[in-house]
Amino acid sequence: MDWNRVIETNRQAVIQVLDEIFALLELALAGTMRCLPREAYLAVETLLRPTEAAVRRLIVIAAREMAAKPFARRPMPEGLVIVSKGQRNPAFALFDPRKRFAKSEAQSAAPEGGPRIHSFESFFQAHAPQAAAPDTSLDATQLLRRFQSVKHALETLPRQALRLVRWKARRKAAENPKFRSPLRPGKPPGHRDKPKHKIDFVLMDCHGLAFDALREDSS
Fold first, then answer.
1. Strands, DSSP E only, in the chain?
2. Please, what sign has the CA dihedral across residues 12, 13, 17, 23?
């Protein structure tokens, strides 16, 4: 398989999606409060999650057959100034967020056997239709940082692949790591059973290819 062609084809597709996301984020970038209308905020979040997952899988593919030793810890040189977080690109997460299967406290505390109805009046009050929430603006600061992070990762794929190789080496050396693979089992984050957008198809393609690359590395 021509892995370089696979990476470049999907990279160009993701760039187009990032352009679409940026067009939505421009509303927040134009203001001083960094806010977005609720509808635009949700649209960005819906596109951003599968985009992050697709880029993560491109990094896995780019890291195939790479070998590197983890950085040795060294004392910080005197006089070195660390740039503040607000002035540098936020680091892109190299691994999928893991699913949480534990029940919440509210779910654990709920009595079994269904709700107990003490009066019909209280039952209908509790199940009355709620008024729709007003279309307020939402703080888009975190979305902007995630966009900046995934964009930078896509622009520096070889560097991110080297980060991944070092991350895997540290995991391999650890005694009891929680997980060793950057990709979680099952469906990727942002997966939709009924694809609606270009990024849905890109993610499906990258997901299968990334697992092929991982199997190739382990063989």
1. 35-37, 137-139
2. positive
